[in-house]
Amino acid sequence: METTLHNRHAFQLLHDPFLNKGTAFTEEERRENHLEGLLAPTVETLDEQVQRIIGQLEQSESDLERYMELRSLQDRNRTLFYKVLISDPDRFLPLVYTPTVGEACEKFGHILRRSHGVYLPVTAKGRLKELLGNWGERDVRFIVVTDGSRILGLGDLGASGMGIPIGKLSLYTACAGVPPRLTLPITLDVGTDNEAFLQDPLYAGLRQKRVDDDVFFEFVDEFVQAVQDLFPQCCIQFEDFSMNHATPLLEKYRDKVCCFNDDIQGTAGVALAGIYAACQAKSEPIGDQRILFLGGGSAGTGIAELIVEAMCLDGMSRDEALTHVRLFDINGLLVKSRDDLLPFQLPFAADAEECTDFLAAIKDFRPTGIIGVSTVHGAFNEQVIKTMAEINDRPLIFPYSNPTSRAECTAQEAYDWTEGKVLFASGTPMPPVELRGKTMKPSQGNNVYIFPAVGMAIFATGATHVPEEAFLTAAHALATHVPAEYFDQGMLYPSRDDLRPVSLKVAGEVARTLEKLGHNQHHADDWDARISELAYCPEYTCSLPK
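^ that's the sequence the OP posted. Answer follows.
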């Protein structure tokens, strides 16, 4: 019996991703925990293990294979996984999230090796608390949840969208130090309208069409209540919900529970930070900017709202600030005379003539910048970008749609067609551009600059709600960490190599805002120091359970 218990303990250590050290178990740990003979005899350091993983990744033939290798590592050794990510963020973060995660989600059923997180199918409606209670951790502080209805720019991927919550929560830890034990990825499987998936024998989700709105909202309500009952200190991040559900869910729950929507508020924060940085590069106030959006959904209106609030902070009235943003969707310019606008679009309906030509809308509005959240590849064509350069000395061109296959234009096109005048940021990584003997480094306006820092601030303060001011603060703080010399290189955001220290600084600023607004449960005299203390660092612990 004793031998069996020893074997079970050793087996549990080697298969618990939070406790497993692999070849880094010391000789003493191996003896005490009955691991001798179960591991190769050489004892390695964490840094030596990192080098082995990097070597293995270099031998992989594609980024999707590298994604799969890193996901497998995450499931067997969480410490080593995060040590690898932090060792070279610019190299490894795009492998665990955008752009690689898009392909991973499209092929999720075919590359699935081990379940990670919690799947809540609509067929379990009425039993969600029971299913959620099967999760092994009792202290969950962050849930990223999706229904897979609008994954990146790829559309309805159903349960295969689980790659998004997994990836997002990895960034919480890698970028801002949120302890990984406190995170939980969840997919609400309410069916899919993706016919290819429904016919795919390896699709892992429910094989049924998406439920109607009444059932959907009841289902989400049961989920939110189950989270409150089981994990009362948890913040819910809504992720990649369809346009007709994303804003209504945020409006319904934002004042009731601790939650936010990254596609709306995180995207808004990083876009506003890019605009703030561009204003510094141009030596212009934000109140001088006029922004035209291609895409009038939840992302576009979310960014527009935060820009309006930033202009109001700068002394402008809300009515005047609203005249500085316009949105253009599949049916044309959002104007007051249209009768097809959704409630969340109405505040941004312009008092202007109807227009169904984006180029004509540019010529009429004369924006200082255009932001693409349309997922229409090539929508910022040569004529559009050249017109922006004719109107502005330094036009802002932000094709924010991702993955790369859905970007409105490339960095190369934006630089070529403006003769280098552009202030550029994209939603997906793009290669450097050679311009008259100078190398320009296109910025990626990735939400990773915002949501992990906001998350760490929520964790540190014990925030009960997430006000819009948190994202305003994060955007402004992020822009202040862009060195002036970066502008000459085409960069509007900090280097990804500096992502972790910058995120911790941004988190400190957001924490001060949360405390000032009275949303905190905890207090610190020095939030920067407190956040540094709380931040998870991937190192092996000296103590193991007996």
